[in-house]
Specification:
This protein is α/β, with parallel strands linked by helices. It is built from 15 helices and 17 strands.
């Protein structure tokens, strides 16, 4: 095997793989060696030394204010869209495993009547806004190793949903190896190490390393609006939200919904030691989770919906600095060194984009009505299932009719194309 890979394996305390390689066929050994050459074994060594890992947040926890309506921000956002200085990112690297289907989640058909996919609904919102502004904004779709080919093929199959190809980019995020409880790499198959995508923080970093953000900056992009692919009722192009970072001169704006149930499993936007932060629900103490203000509302109630606007210069400055790794303990399907299928307790590692929050001197927090903008597709059944999300889309379309003073069609399921109708104003017209 390549001597450099041999040395790197030993330095990462993974010398056991050398014996495993010796027992493989020549073809299988070459395949595993090729993957090992691409894995960041130096990072593995640092992890085993306790480095590069996210530290528990310390310091006083305090609440953040929520911004009120701001016509100036709306004007600033509209001006930015009209000037073509806004880029959009859809984080789409995940698979639809919890939906019990194969393939990327964005390809899932969610239209109440049609086979319109999550991708189509979100992309068409951005395309429609670009047509209205007279400037189609650049759009980046983040992918992972397991979804990249399928996502690209899906876009080709649908003619990129009419999005101009010179404005559309795909950015594949990196993979990180998992480790078992003994600190050893885990074999997914005899000739392949188990890896997982490096999280939404890694997806955002990929925009920098894959040269998308540098190109955008040269093209005059100043703001980057970012959302996940699973929330089709989201108002993706929100001029007032985009304008918040401009008029407030802050590097980050984020959307939240108000938590009313302490047990709701969403991260909470707050301050830690005076710095903006997102606190994972599992990291809140029971006392803080249940704490209430004098008016009875939860004190830490600003639930993140993973929708953000970043100043591009802030991203260009911060993303080259490594984001810390968060550890998730999981039972991982694998094979042992004899090739037998088994499961092991191990650690997966991810980077989270909200670790950018404390690096911002301040952020703007914008509240949205969850009935209007938050019904993510997560599960095959129950909460956040296709049935629930399709019903939310149907209610959204009917509400637009009512706000426009137009009687909705008497149909069991109602659906509108974002290219034709993107709110009650279009129905009035």
């Amino acid at each position: 095997m390549d001597r450099a890979v041999h040395t790197r394996l030993e330095a990462a305390n993974q010398h056991w793989i050398l014996d495993h390689l010796a027992g493989l066929s020549e073809k299988s050994a070459k395949r595993l060696e090729s993957q090992l050459a691409r894995i960041d074994l130096e990072l593995v060594a640092r992890i085993l030394a306790g480095e590069d890992l996210a530290e528990a947040s310390t310091g006083e926890l305090s609440s953040l204010p929520v911004a009120g309506p701001d016509p100036a921000a709306n004007r600033a956002g509209e001006d930015a869209l009209n000037a073509g200085s806004v880029g959009f990112v859809i984080l789409a690297g995940g698979q639809a495993s919890r939906l019990r289907v194969d393939g990327p989640k964005g390809a899932f058909a969610i239209g109440p009547k049609s086979d319109r996919s999550l991708f189509e609904i979100l992309v068409h919102q951005i395309l429609r806004a670009g047509r209205d502004a007279g400037v189609i904004p650049p759009l980046a779709i983040t992918t992972s190793s397991s979804t990249d080919a399928a996502i690209r093929a899906f876009f080709e199959e649908h003619n990129c949903f009419e999005y101009p190809r010179d404005k559309l980019s795909f950015s594949r995020q990196k993979q990180l190896p998992a480790l078992d409880d003994d600190g050893r790499l885990i074999l997914a198959t005899p000739d392949r190490v188990f890896t997982n995508p490096d999280g939404h923080g890694g997806a955002l970093q990929g925009l920098e390393t894959n040269n998308i953000l540098p190109v955008w900056e040269k093209a005059g992009i100043r703001s980057v609006a970012c959302c996940q692919v699973d929330n089709p009722i989201l108002r993706v192009v929100d001029a007032e939200f985009i304008g918040r970072t401009i008029v407030n001169n802050v590097p980050v704006a984020t959307k939240i919904v108000v938590k009313t149930d302490p047990a709701e499993k969403v991260g909470v936007v707050a301050r830690i030691a005076g710095r903006p932060a997102l606190v994972e629900y599992s990291d809140l103490s029971d006392e803080d989770t249940q704490r209430r203000d004098a008016d009875g509302q939860l004190t830490y109630r600003l639930g993140s919906i993973a929708v953000h606007v970043f100043a591009l210069d802030f991203l260009r400055h911060e993303l080259p600095r490594s984001l810390p790794l968060h550890v998730a303990r999981k039972e991982i399907s694998c094979v042992d060194t004899e090739g037998n299928t088994t499961k092991t307790h191990g650690r997966k590692f991810e980077r989270f984009l909200f670790d950018l929050f404390p690096r911002a001197f301040d952020i703007v927090v914008c509240e949205v009505d969850r009935a209007l903008e938050f019904e993510p597709l997560k599960n095959a059944e129950g909460a956040h299932s296709p049935q629930v999300v399709r019903a939310a889309l149907d209610r959204q379309y009917r509400r637009w009719h009512q706000e426009a003073g137009v009687a909705p069609p008497e149909e069991s399921a109602l659906e509108l194309s974002p290219l034709d109708v993107n709110g009650p104003t279009d129905l009035r017209a």
